[in-house]
Amino acid sequence: MEGIPTAWLQAREPLPKGDRETITLFRPTGPKELALIKESGDREFPPRLPEQPIFYPVLNEEYAAQIARNWNAASTDTGYIGYVTRFQVRTEFLSRYSVKTVGGSIHQEYWIPAEDLPEFNRNIVGLIEVISEFRQSTT
Fold first, then answer.
1. Total H helices, total E strands in the chain
2. Region 75-90: what's the mean pLDDT?
3. I want to staple 36 with a disulfide (CB 3.0 to 4.6 A). Which of 24, 30, 46, 65 is the partner?
4. Is 101:107 a contact under the CB 8 Å cutoff?
5. How buried is residue 53: exposed, middle or buried, by Cβ count under 10 Å (0-12/13-18/19+)?
6. For 18-41, what is the mean pLDDT?
7. Contact criterion met (CB below 8 Å) for 30 and 72
8. Three-state DSSP state, 91
9. pLDDT band (50, 70, 90) for residue 77
10. How far is CA 41 from CA 27, 28, 125, 137, in A?
11. Mean pLDDT across the chain, nearest whole number?
């Protein structure tokens, strides 16, 4: 530090903390789920349906885009539209869950039991934002 001008030291930005307060996650979704997210003010995910015991946010945009493009946008149930959402969740909350790899190295996700989703939603920091949209032609 010796020899570094004082003005430079005062203007420097702090280094990122090793223990980040939030983790960026992604969620592929269709228009029905997105409408429910919008109804919440872009602050929470809707409750799971009885046949959906797990909520699975994913760890990277590429994986979320694969699902939105190849699953959501390929389905008549979604009107051939898929979206990718991005959001921040408190690291402390996520620390109770392990990351699951469900295919290749990019296929990483958290498995959040449906009954934990309300608490998951309370640990979202900021808004849920749509970052990609996929549409498949029906002709």
1. 5, 7
2. 93
3. 46
4. yes
5. exposed
6. 92
7. yes
8. helix
9. confident
10. 17, 18, 13, 30
11. 90
Integer Cα distance of 112 and 123 in angstroms: 13
Tokens representing 68? Answer: 């939105």
Place of tokens 């996700």: 109
Contacts (Cβ under 8 Å, ≥6 apart) of 74: 80, 136
The answer to whether the CB of 84 falls within 8 A of the CB of 68 is: yes
Indicate left, alpha or beta for 101 from its phi (over 0: left) and psi (-120 to 50: alpha).
Answer: beta
Dig out the tokens for 6 from the structure. Answer: 């004082």
Instruction: Express each pLDDT in 90-136 by its tens digit.
Output: 999 999 999 999 989 999 999 999 999 999 999 999 999 999 999 98
Token pair for 139: 């002709």
> What is the torsion angle, in degrees rounded to the nearest 10, for the CA atoms of residue 88, residue 92, residue 97 and residue 101?
50
State the Rg of the chain over Cα.
19
Residue whose token pair is 């203007």: 11
DSSP states along 43-73: S-PPPPPTT--EE--BS-HHHHHHHHHHTGG
pTM: 0.83
